[in-house]
Amino acid sequence: MSSRRQLQKDPQFVVVVLLVLLAAGSTIGPIGVGVAFASAQDPASCLELVRDAVANEVAANSNSTKHMFRVRKQTPQGSQTKLYVETRDAMVGMTIASNDRPLAPQDIQTEERRLEGMAGNAEQLRRKHSQEQENAERTLRIVKALPDAFLYQYDGEESGEASGDAGRQLVRLRFRPNPAYQPPTHAEQVLVGMQGFLVIDPTTHRLARIDGTLFKEVAFGWGILGHLDKGGHFLVEQRDIGNGCWEVSRMSLNLTGKILMFKSLAIKSDEVFSDFRPVPNGITFAEGVEMLKAEEVKLAQNRGAETIDPQNQSH
Q1: What is the C-alpha to C-alpha distance for residues 97 and 81, in angstroms, rounded to an integer?
Q2: Around Cβ 277, how many Cβ atoms within 10 Å?
Q3: Which neighbouring-strand residues pair with 263?
Q4: Taking the CA of residue 55 as centre, how many other CA atoms within 13 Å lie in the half-sphere pointing to its CB?
Q5: pLDDT tens digits, residue range 59-88?
């Protein structure tokens, strides 16, 4: 899986919370024929289906395909829309709208200057790249743990609409903690308090959705590092964006807890990822900045054209 998502303000703890980042971003064929719906109803077949899907997600992580895409994030404070582009150096992100209103020209200029400054700061880019790599490694450990951390039970079938193919049937599995599982690090510790549903495309062996709830409080480092409250919920969906390439399409988080025993943690957000387009794999951060600047200009021109289009004028 690629290191697609979310640099957090408190990365050492919140990265553990955001275990659900199942970002893929690769083209890969199915591992095998797939488990038939009928045979997926026994626990052994459920586990086999999960292992195959996880193996595909792990293999996808090594793919170098990069994209430009758009993210709209809704929180209790409002919404923010950003353009992102993946580069060989680090992820580039530019805010283009707040509460669904385009940024004012001076605010766009501020964003551009910020990114240009970052592009010219080799040490800052090195730190950003290192942090993204560490986040990706933590996420990968979580994904690899899914077959062993939970017990799975067949829960039915559903349409593949969320994965971009309404005519495709997906397998839904209910999961609960495996009492024999011992988390090897703090990153996997949250899994022992989680239950929910895993939805898999049995044809491509890809994870289409994970919907999890914390059924008990989960402590980190004997409670010294912090804890997550009972009742926390997350939802992550990913879909095929074309050519067998899967990307996260939605991520919803509603989590509370404490960091270092005293600092309150509250995450409530709903993010939609869209408009994925491939970009050259070897582009630099500076080139990514220029791509986002050019894209914002196109968006502004389109808005201007819509404003003066007579068909959009009231009569």
Answers
A1: 5
A2: 12
A3: 259
A4: 13
A5: 887 777 899 999 999 999 999 999 999 999
